Amino acid sequence: MAEKNxxxxxxxxxxxxxxxxxxxxxxxxxxxxxxxISKAGPGGGLVAYIAMGLMVYFLMxxxxxxATNLPVSGSFATYSAKYVDPALGFAMGWNYWFNWTITVxxxxxxxALLIQYWLPQTPGWIWSLLVLIIxxxxxxxxxxxxxxxxxxxxxxxxxxxxxFLIIGFAMIFGxxxxxxxxxxxxxxxxxxxxxxxxxxxxxxxxxGFSFQGTELIGVTAGESQNPEEAVPKAINDVxxxxxxxxxxxxxxxxxxxxxxxxxxxxxxxGNIAVSPFTLVFKRAGLAFAASLMNTVVLTSVLxxxxxxxxxxxxxxxxxxxxxxxPKIFAKTSKSGIPFYxxxxxxxxxxxxxxxxxxxxxxxxxxxxxxxxxxxxxxVGIALSHYRFRRxxxxxxxxxxxxxxxxxxxxxxxxxxxxxxxVVIGGQNIDAFIHWDWQQIGVTYISVxxxxxxxxxxxxxxxxxxxxxxxIDLSSSNNN
Length: 479
Prior knowledge:
It is built from 20 helices and no strands. With about 475 residues, it is mainly alpha-helical. Helix 3 runs parallel beside helix 16 (about 375-395), helix 5 (about 85-115) crosses helix 14 and helix 5 (about 85-115) runs antiparallel to helix 16. The radius of gyration is 22 Å and the shape is globular.
């Protein structure tokens, strides 16, 4: 093991773009998207995804401005410490590492269930362990190996969505398999809007989770060959593709499957046979639709686990470099891999997975504790960018000095911040109405955990919110 603490910039622009794109197209689209239509109607589902898509766009342009100025693996955790408060950076970094480490454990459990679709007699833990070993080997190799793996896994998902849209629109217009379906399901019974505004706000959560992973752009910037070119291109390309993919996919599902169909909710429970994509492919005459979608969802889960191992490893590496974690995690191999950080991540993921076998209650709380982390990370991005830009102007700089400009400042980050807080607060309103303390705990546990990390570090190190005129705006990077 080389005694170094630098990563290598080997991620190509196409890798960064596809990692961000693939990070958003996953089980959220393939399995749970139908539940937004079931709960809020076709119109409500579309509004929720459009609103979340715009919020994510503002967040990603904010992250783009930060990442092109200072491309580091610590991303928003580093920016939170540098532009807001060191205690916030500490809390954001450890919270994000914890989230992805738990997510890897969830993903390898899900992968086993998907493989057992074909091999039901085999024990699931063997497949989970095999997937974890594969993920470890990919991430322990080189960053370009990781990037290339993600590129091809993401290609499978993108091609699936494109084929789905082509077949779906052909069925809507009557080009294949029977007469034109048209838009009759958009006015069926209480459609297009079911349950009004409360229902739309309720499905914001589902839509928001579908976009989780876009912030990986910021993490990959630290190892991009040309972050000034790769990050803005990835943000612009990814946003429009994601918005088109999601909006058009929701439109097709809503047009072909009435919101009253129980299958839309059954798919959200993990039943691949009634995934909206499976149902549409079956209606088009593809007898092997369920097996096809099981394969695609499996690649999505593998991609999520692969990205999760990468993101958590780089975050732990960055925490160690910023003296928020033991220095051993800042050491890298000759190929620039933070090996000890990767090893720690894989071990914790394995221990978490073990609790799913021997202690379901502990596992449930661990998963719950990571539930809101993505939204909390987005809050950190919005805050960091808002203060960075204000400090930049206050210290006499011109916007022309920035390599990339976020859109609609200060409105963009403010809107994103407000929507994130609304989504976090509105996770489980019913639990507060009925004062169900267990449900409140399961839903919101990640919020007090972040606050404990923040105030605990603040109390120990006596940190303060950095005044705007004292913020270090340098773009030096020793990652």
